[in-house]
What we know:
Elements: H1 4-17, H2 28-34, H3 40-52, E1 56-60, E2 76-81, H4 83-92
Antiparallel strand pairs: 1-2
Amino acid sequence: MLSENAKTVAYELRLSVGPDSVGIGPDTNELIAICGDFDGDELLAAISELQRMGFINVDRAIPTSESSLPKPLRGIVAVSVLEPLQAYFDRIGI
């Protein structure tokens, strides 16, 4: 069972890429824009949960201190939606 925050982020990701897309997703700035109600720590926790479930892939890089991103998200370049996330929402009818 997903936490409410992870479910919200997953839903926003699905909306951003469409219900038939796999292997693509927003970069970190886009992710922050579509999940604007979350602070950096909440968004990182939701991303980590979705990654553990196999719903998304997280592309990481060495964080830079000059980044304008919230500190907890500086090491994340982008996330990609995977097939299990799409199947999850198909199964629950969203």
